[in-house]
Amino acid sequence: MTILNLDDSKKVTDYQQFVRENPRGQVTQDPLWGELKSNWGHIYVYHETDGKIDAAMSILTVEAVPGKLLAYVGRGPVADVEDIDLIKSMINEALTALPDNVFLVRMDPEVSYSDALNQKYIDAGFKTRNKQVEHMHGNIQPRKNVVLYYDGRGEGAKPITNEEELMLHFKPKVRNDIRRAFRDGVTVTSGDSEEDIRALFDTYVSMAKSHGITHRPIDYFLRMQKLWAGTGLFRVYLAHYENQVIASGLGFSYGDEIWYMYAGSYREFGKHNAPAAIQYEMLKWGLELGKVEYDFGGIGEFDNSDGLYKFKHEFAYHDPHAEYIGELDWVIDESGYQEYLKQFE
User: Fold this and answer.
1) Active site residue 37
2) What pLDDT shows up at residue 211?
3) Domain locations in the chain?
4) Mind telling me which PANTHER family this protein's record contains (predicted)?
5) 2-140+325-344 matches 146-323 in fold
6) 129 a catalytic residue
7) Does residue 81 contact residue 109 with C-beta atoms inside 8 Å?
8) Annotated catalytic residue within 35, 88, 171, 311
């Protein structure tokens, strides 16, 4: 078990290659994510077998209660989470390098929930936060996601190997919406330039305002673009209508997955169904790369009372519900932990 030396360019490259190419790799476990989160501290732990990295734990730290730090392993670690001895040894190694005022190490790997796995972590001394958390914002990351599986799992599903099979995977309404968008003259481009990011941001802000929700600042997205441009791991999709961008989507390609992360649209152009066209083109990206999963992101509930579910599920109605293990908390300071949990009540 070793702490990554960020001055060792070869080992940093090896670490990045592992979290990018491992089937369960995640953008939030890439050291670039630590650079994006410029106001967070960061350390990286890895495990090797025969000189090759086979487990990685990227940990970001931030003051989450006065004077005390949360150490967060976002959507990680990239490791065999069934091997709890390995996971605990990585945490213990991290604690040798983390500040003394860390009160909690929190992991939330993208691994399916099971009673057995949940109990294994409890028996090992972790506190788990999953089924007892009723609201999607009660966890840092939503625990319930809509995922399209290109390999054809789910009742009535078949493997998706071409664009025709992809289109047939959707509900008829979605197919009609996509065709309507293109008939209306909507076109979709993709790129990773600053211009692309600025166009996305304008639609993102418009959508946030129409829904009365907060949004990230433009500087966050500009940093993201500078860090990932040219890597092939990051794309911005823009829907154009009559020489104007009317909708957008942003995604990352890591491991076996495309993760659809941000989007935006102008409500006044809603009749042209541009968001459906964006999703279609992003799903084609995953198909071209031979991905196994396309993660539409989090939802509140697996039913049509949830507007996010209603839109996303129409693309993936064959697919099984993705319900993850949730938060696996290694508590160091119980009083700090209880203070921290109050914000999620």
Assistant:
1) yes
2) 86
3) 2-140+325-344, 146-323
4) LIPID II:GLYCINE GLYCYLTRANSFERASE (PTHR36174:SF1)
5) yes
6) no
7) yes
8) 311
Active site residue 144: no
Candidates 93, 196, 256, 327; catalytic one: 327
Asked whether the predicted pLDDT for residue 1 surpasses 80, the reply is no
pLDDT 10s digits, 178-197: 999 999 999 999 999 999 99
Residue recorded with tokens 């086979």: 54
Q: Which of 146, 132, 148 is nearest to 326 (CA)?
A: 132
Looking at 20, 24, 37, 144, which residue is catalytic? 37
The CATH superfamily label for domain 2-140+325-344 reads Gcn5-related N-acetyltransferase (GNAT) (3.40.630.30)
pLDDT digits (tens, 9 = 90+) for 249-262: 999 999 999 999 99
Q: CA 206, CA 265: separation in Å to the nearest integer? A: 7
DSSP string, 20-71: HHSTT--GGGSHHHHHHSTTSEEEEEEEEETTEEEEEEEEEEEEEETTEEEE
Q: Is the pTM of this model over 0.85?
A: yes
The domain made up of 146-323 has a fold known as Aminopeptidase (3.40.630)
Q: Tens digit of pLDDT for each residue in 15-54?
A: 999 999 999 999 999 999 999 998 999 999 999 999 999 9
C-alpha angle with apex 53: 47 to 55, nearest 5 degrees? 50
Told to judge if 158 belongs to the known catalytic residues of this protein, a careful annotator would answer no
Across the chain, mean pLDDT equals 96
